[in-house]
Every structure is written in structure tokens, then in C-alpha cells.
Write a structure and sequence with these properties.
The chain has 216 residues and is α+β, with helices and mostly antiparallel strands. The protein folds into 2 domains: 165 residues, Amidase signature (AS) enzymes, CATH 3.90.1300.10; 35 residues, no CATH class. The chain contains 6 helices and 7 strands. The strands form 3 sheets. It has a 3-stranded antiparallel β-sheet. Strand 4 and strand 5 form a beta hairpin. Helix 1 crosses helix 2, helix 1 packs across helix 3 and helix 1 packs across helix 4. The chain starts with 15 loop residues before the first helix and ends with a strand. The relative contact order is 0.10. Pfam families: Amidase. It comes from Pseudomonas syringae pv. actinidiae. This is Asp-tRNAAsn/Glu-tRNAGln amidotransferase A subunit or related amidase. One of its GO terms (molecular function) is transferase activity.
């Protein structure tokens, strides 16, 4: 196979959403059963929703999800009989304001849960292949763009070596190299932060309707 060959590939990943939903919710039940039993209200709304989704699932749901993950795994590994790497965007959207807890729609299409916008990443989580996000210039809005580079199963070292080679090859190309932040603009932040921030602000808080910044 020529070393400079790059092909578009078509993968059947239609079951990935449901499979990930079930396996993720299953893990929430396994990890949070005691906390939920003690005080369900102590869990955040998203965490509690994931737990309750898992608690309502049947054994059949779980068996099917594990079977689908195995099918996705086998199909994905076949691609690496022909290719060294698979490339994809890291996310389907530009970075959005930090004050938004999650993305609610993509190109005007509503998303059915708070993590669906991460589908390009969690699909690879299902396959268990190593992957990384390589800074690769900016997108159409001038925001940093991440190229998702996916390696073969247990091929972590090879993936890192290939990513380093790609980074070096694009280092002198302003269209593809890692964008450098404007530190002066970052220093002039308009956000009044007085604590270590751990999550976006919660609107409708106790400060006269102003957002409350989450802190440790």
C-alpha cells in the first residue's frame, strides 16, 4: 500500500448511540448505587438521569448492548488490516461558550441528551482503540480545530509516534499547525472569577439572578 494513500471509509456505526447509552448508564448504576440509595437529591440532574436510566434497563438491554459493542469492535478492527490510522474530527462543532453546560443542537437539529455532541469520541470509546486529539489549525469560525487520530487496537505507541510525525510535518504551515492563543486577550477576561471553577455557572441562583460560578 502506498505510504501517501488516504481513502474515505464507510463504517456502519448506527447502533453506537444506543449501545453507548446503555453501557454508560450501566456503569452509573454500578458506581453510584450506594450514593443514590443514601440521597438521590445529592446527585446532579445529569448524573441522576443517567443512574435512573440504567436502573430502569432490563437484562435484555444490557446483553444486546454488550453484543453490539463486540460487533462494533470486530468491524472497526478490520479497517486496520488496510490502514495505519483513521482520521476524523474530534467534535462536529466549534468550541462553544464555557457558560453553556452542554450543546443542545447541531446545525439546528436538537440533540436528545447532554453528551450526544461527543458522539465522534464515544464511538471510539466503544471500540477501545487508542485515540488522541491533535491540534490542527482553526475552523471556519477561527476557533481551534482538533483532528481525531485513531490507532489500531493496543497500538498506543505507534499512534503517538504517528501523531508526533504529523505535528512536525505541519509545524510550519499556519493553516494546519497548532494555533497559539493570544495571552493578552486571555488576561483581559470579562468574567469575574474568584474561585477555582469546576463547572459552568448555574443561572437563576441566589445572587439576584446572576450566574453562580461552580467552585471547589
Amino acid at each position: 500500500m502506498p505510504s501517501n494513500r488516504c481513502d474515505a471509509i464507510d463504517l456502519n456505526l448506527t447502533s453506537a448511540h444506543r449501545t453507548f447509552d446503555v453501557l454508560r448508564a450501566e456503569a452509573f448504576v454500578a458506581g453510584l448505587q450506594d450514593a443514590h440509595d443514601r440521597d438521590p437529591d445529592a446527585l446532579g440532574p445529569n448524573t441522576r438521569a443517567n443512574f435512573e436510566m440504567g436502573a430502569a434497563m432490563s437484562l435484555q438491554d444490557c446483553v444486546k448492548a454488550h453484543g453490539e459493542q463486540s460487533r462494533l469492535f470486530r468491524g472497526f478492527q478490520k479497517q486496520f488490516e488496510h490502514y495505519d490510522l483513521i482520521l476524523a474530527p474530534t467534535t462536529p462543532v466549534s468550541p462553544f461558550p464555557w457558560s453553556e453546560l452542554y450543546l443542545r443542537e447541531v446545525n439546528g437539529v436538537p440533540l436528545d441528551n447532554y453528551y450526544r455532541w461527543l458522539a465522534l469520541c464515544y464511538t471510539i470509546t466503544l471500540t477501545t482503540n487508542p485515540a488522541l486529539s491533535l491540534p490542527c489549525g482553526t475552523d471556519h469560525q477561527g476557533m481551534p480545530f482538533g483532528l481525531q487520530v485513531i490507532g489500531g487496537f493496543r497500538g498506543d505507541a505507534k499512534l503517538l509516534a504517528c501523531a508526533e510525525a504529523l505535528e512536525q510535518a505541519t509545524a510550519n504551515d499556519p493553516r494546519l499547525s497548532r494555533p497559539r492563543p493570544d495571552l493578552q486577550k486571555l488576561l483581559a477576561s470579562a468574567v469575574d472569577l474568584t474561585h477555582i471553577v469546576t463547572h459552568p455557572p448555574v443561572y437563576g441562583g441566589s445572587r439576584g439572578g446572576k450566574p453562580e460560578v461552580g467552585a471547589m
